[in-house]
């Protein structure tokens, strides 16, 4: 299967000026970063009226290229870019004030192009430009942040380091093989018109190095009075959609044979089977090198010819190895090269939350809070990596012999950064388990962190009540009919404000849920005055259908009365 291939060149010169306040940088990493992060090009033009424009431009270019490829591979390009640029802007603003005592101490324009998989992502502040040549079509992909003052003067309206708040232009669009991208500072595009830039790119379409040299040379001949910087990137190949080759790569490792106690697989001695389903087998094993007990998870032979299943199995390990929390199952590095498809995790001695709930049908509120807080800590670690669990349920949660709660399954996890990578597969993530899945999944919508909050709210409710908040299994057909049952109906000892927090967490409308896990956890421990108000909740929350039916009848009667008058 072909991978993203980009040819690139750049050139930056001082021109007629004594110093060069521009800065440029391109990074084309090796796999696997080429797949998970893509290619990045950055161009910056230090503001001439700035005390340290060159230093600001260099800090932005080098800072972005270093930090972008260090951000989690699970993050989207947009998240990575916005976090990095926000931090760089705050640093420039702070340094400008501290070192030079002026808001114009360290100021620069900045334009960033990231090409990942089959998509281009642009971040832009200032008046550097990004163009695209596609066939015979030449298009400017950015707009200059300049304002006119008088008939012949313009000033930057946006730049890095000039204000603690940064307003970034961001956009993304599909890339095609043969696309050519040109990044320039104003020393180029103020003296070479777009028609000429297009001609030079077409003349040197197969040679980016010759293209940037020709562009800079022509700007000089046009008597440019500024620094001269240009970058050209040509997309030579994109990850293809060859399903057979993609499947071959997925199946490079064969499924392991049936494992029995006493067998040794790649240095792991099988002790016994812990769990088996139609999708996976889980074994307790002994690491013969360290002497530690570990767990081996193997795929089911039922799916040996199912590329979607194999892809999901591999991503479960990929996600686990990038997560680090005391409340998430730790996925371990295997010994050397594996001969079969499986992965290794720590062994948690304890019981599932389902077993704990069976043993504690009437738990203390403090016990439930403690468990919920620990689950939330694990989920927060996932959400920080832009991962959504999507299948939170009591069977996927363990409580070890010391009372530590761990989420143990990542099979349905949605990874935002991986979702940006084009594959020939339709990744159909398992969207939860009945009774715990968020309603938006049933409606065919995408999930968010609020989807995990819904599942956690259902679990907390069930621990306190022994039943589910909507009694009936949710489905597309009954989402407009089911009603929330207060937890106080089955457990009078629960404060009404705790029921209010639970009601909000399991709202059928994700927009009415808590925005963050921390808000839900906080409201389980501290009374929210809003939930202490007497009386039943408004009809629109108790029975939306009845509310809108009544509202419609009311407006109809009002209209008829008005017509009669």
User: What structural class do you assign from the helix and strand content?
Assistant: alpha+beta
General shape = globular
Q: How many structural domains does the protein architecture include?
A: 3
- The CATH topology of the largest domain: Phosphatase 2c, domain 1
Sheet with most strands: 6 strands, antiparallel
Determine the strand fraction and express it as a percent band.
15-25%
Going by CATH, the architecture of the largest domain would be 4-Layer Sandwich
How far apart lie the N and C ends?
A: 75 Å
In the predicted model, the low-confidence regions spanning at least 5 consecutive residues are: none
State the CATH superfamily name of the largest domain.
PPM-type phosphatase domain
Put simply, the count of helices is 17
Share of helix among residues? Answer: 25-40%
Mean pLDDT: 91
| Rg on CA atoms, Å | 29 Å
Number of strands: 23
CATH class bucket of the largest domain: Alpha Beta
Spatial strand order of the main sheet: 13-14-15-16-18-17
């Amino acid at each position: 299967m072909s991978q993203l291939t980009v040819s690139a060149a750049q050139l930056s010169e001082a021109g007629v000026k004594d110093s060069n306040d521009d800065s440029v940088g391109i990074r084309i990493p090796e796999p696997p970063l080429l797949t998970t992060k893509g290619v990045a090009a950055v161009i910056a033009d230090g503001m001439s009226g700035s005390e340290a424009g060159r230093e600001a431009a260099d800090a932005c270019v080098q800072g972005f290229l270093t930090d972008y490829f260090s951000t989690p591979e699970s993050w989207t390009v947009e998240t990575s870019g916005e976090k990095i640029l926000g931090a760089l802007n705050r640093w420039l603003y702070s340094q400008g004030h501290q070192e030079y005592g002026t808001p114009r101490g360290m100021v620069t324009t900045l334009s960033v192009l990231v090409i990942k998989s089959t998509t281009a992502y642009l971040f832009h502040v200032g008046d550097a430009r990004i163009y695209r040549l596609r066939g015979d079509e030449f298009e400017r992909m950015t707009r200059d942040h300049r304002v006119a003052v008088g008939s012949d003067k313009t000033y930057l309206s946006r730049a890095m380091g000039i204000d603690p708040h940064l307003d970034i232009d961001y956009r993304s669009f599909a890339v095609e093989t043969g696309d050519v991208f040109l990044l320039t500072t104003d020393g180029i595009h103020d003296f070479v018109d777009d028609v000429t830039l297009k001609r030079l790119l077409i003349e040197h379409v197969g040679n980016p190095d010759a293209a940037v040299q020709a562009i800079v040379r022509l700007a000089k001949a046009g008597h440019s009075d500024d620094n001269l910087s240009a970058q050209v990137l040509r997309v030579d190949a994109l990850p293809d959609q060859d399903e057979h080759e993609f499947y071959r790569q997925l199946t490079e490792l064969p499924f392991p044979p049936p494992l029995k106690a006493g067998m040794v697989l790649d240095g792991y001695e099988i002790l016994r089977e812990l769990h088996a389903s139609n999708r996976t087998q889980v074994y307790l094993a002994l690491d013969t090198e360290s002497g530690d007990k570990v767990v081996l998870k193997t795929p089911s032979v039922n799916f040996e010819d199912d590329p979607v299943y194999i892809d999901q199995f591999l991503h479960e390990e990929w996600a686990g190895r990038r997560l680090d929390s005391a409340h998430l199952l730790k996925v371990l590095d295997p010994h050397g090269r594996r001969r079969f498809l499986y992965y290794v995790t720590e062994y948690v001695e304890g019981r599932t939350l389902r077993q704990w709930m069976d043993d504690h049908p009437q738990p203390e509120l403090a016990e439930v809070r403690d468990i919920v807080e620990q689950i939330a800590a694990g989920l927060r670690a996932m959400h920080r990596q832009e991962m959504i669990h999507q299948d939170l349920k009591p069977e996927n949660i363990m409580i070890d012999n010391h009372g530590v709660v761990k989420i143990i399954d990542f099979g349905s996890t949605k990874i935002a950064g991986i979702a940006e990578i084009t594959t020939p597969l339709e990744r159909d993530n398992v969207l939860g388990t009945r009774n715990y899945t968020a309603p938006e999944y049933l409606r065919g919508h995408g999930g968010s962190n609020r989807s995990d909050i819904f599942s956690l709210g259902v679990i907390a409710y069930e621990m306190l009540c022994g039943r589910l908040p909507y009694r009936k299994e949710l489905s597309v057909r009954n989402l407009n009919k089911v009603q929330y049952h207060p937890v106080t109906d089955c457990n009078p000892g629960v404060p009404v404000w705790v029921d209010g927090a639970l009601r909000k967490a399991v709202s059928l409308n994700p927009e009415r849920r808590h925005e963050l896990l921390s808000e839900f956890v906080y409201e389980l421990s501290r009374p929210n005055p809003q939930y202490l108000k007497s009386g039943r909740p408004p009809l629109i929350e108790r029975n939306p259908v009845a509310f809108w039916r009544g509202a419609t009848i009311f407006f109809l009667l009002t209209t008829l009365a008005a017509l009669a008058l």
